[in-house]
Amino acid sequence: MQIMGILNVTPDSFSDGGAYIEIDQALVQAKKMLAQGATIIDVGGETTRPGAQPVTSEVEIQRVIPVVQALSKLNCEISIDTYKADVARAAVQAGATYINDVSGALYDTQMAAVAAELGVHIILMHNHFAEGETPHAKKKSAPYQDLYQDVKERLMKSVEVCLQAGVKPEKIILDPGIGFAKTAEDTVTLLTHLSQLCAELDYPILLGTSRKRFLTTYISEETQNQRDVATAVTSICALQAGCQYVRVHDVATTQTALHTWKALTTPR
After folding, report:
1. Which residues are catalytic?
2. What are the pLDDT digits (tens) for 20-64?
3. What is the CATH number of the domain that holds 68?
């Protein structure tokens, strides 16, 4: 399993906003995550937390490109977390090799074409936003008639958009979109069907639960550390279900959990 380390270069992300705005701070954090076992660094220049205000492409590019350029000198895999095609293009040209699109390439009609043209991996996340809306996380969403089926069908719609644009199948990764247009109950339901989703979708799956609000149901005290422990547990669930990637803020805790689980389950 690959661990994607989250590097938010934003002033307002829900758990680490403002912490890594300066390039030196971002580089220190990226090096730390790589040393702890991350294989990909996911750089984001716009928070998609519930209620957040979108920023322009120009602002997003100003935030992420210097960081991506600096990271490219570390010879690591870099992902750009954006739903805007012009930001994705600029980031890939600066050294990114993954596009992580929370809209599943359904917001910006040029996103799939950019991924195809540049030949990079694209992570397509399930989301449920109406025409004219930005794909930011909603606090509430209309009840699903069949959550699992909706996730599966909308992800395959994203896949079809990318394939038609010329993206190679081996470049596609899917994300069920934990916390996006889903209640806590929806999320738990989806996680219990994760192995089924992995088995039925013929693409690698990335799970991103890190520090999400639904985890507070299971922790004894509302702290970031407690959320990281709960996140690590979901990473074990992801591994058992067949996911190939997890996206986390705290790489060390997840890596420890994964190593412990593997050690305890390896035949001797």
Report:
1. 212, 247
2. 668 888 999 999 999 999 999 999 999 887 777 888 999 999 999
3. 3.20.20.20
